[in-house]
Design brief:
The protein has 175 residues and is of the alpha/beta class. Helix content is 32%, strand content 20%. The chain has helices at 11-15, 28-40, 52-57, 60-65, 99-113, 136-139, 154-160, and strands at 20-22, 45-48, 66-69, 74-77, 89-93, 120-124, 144-148, 166-170.
Length: 175
């Protein structure tokens, strides 16, 4: 690998999770060099901030090999072995502006914890007072809840009054 790109090959042994690759600011050659290195060392990778236009410029080979989600702007390279006893996690957002952040959280959890998609849950509600609202009873089934909504992080504030358990607030630059 060139001096331009240096992957942390021992990160998973030191901290327990694989390295994520921030694609923003990297050119196509650098991203493909990273992917080649991962393939040669039989690694999986989570690529974040991989914009749709950048994904579209990758070679057809890499486009086929990546599990790409344009909403979250994430790509997963390699096979992820899922586990059936993973914790249940709810991801709650308050509207369409927050969906990319919620989806990025969901895909990161899937990648890092090997959650099966059915064991994690993405919930979206435009307003806590509308008919699309998720009940307190439903939310209480999830020992971990991730909530995000704009810079003020209003969703976690409301959730904190509804449920007990671990609550993680995710601020975003939207909403």
């Amino acid at each position: 690998m060139s001096n331009e790109v240096l992957l942390d090959d021992d990160r998973v042994n030191r901290v327990g999770i694989d390295e994520g690759i921030l694609c923003a600011g990297k050119n196509i050659a650098q991203i493909e060099l990273i992917l080649n290195s991962a393939r040669e060392s039989d690694r999986t990778l989570l690529l974040t901030r991989l914009a749709p236009n950048v994904f579209g410029e990758l070679s057809a080979q890499w486009q086929q090999l990546l599990d790409y989600d344009s909403v979250s702007r994430t790509g997963i390279f390699g096979e992820i072995a899922t586990v059936s006893d993973a914790p249940k996690i709810a991801i709650v957002s308050a509207g369409t502006s927050d969906v990319p952040v919620a989806r990025e959280a969901m895909r990161t959890l899937f990648y890092q914890t090997k959650l099966t998609p059915l064991r994690s849950m993405m919930l979206a509600s435009r307003d806590f007072g509308d008919s699309n609202n998720v009940s307190r009873e439903t939310l209480s089934r999830y020992p971990v809840i991730i909530g995000g909504r704009g810079n003020g992080c209003g969703v976690p504030t409301v959730l904190g009054g509804l449920v007990s358990g671990l609550l993680i607030g995710v601020p975003s630059s939207t909403g």
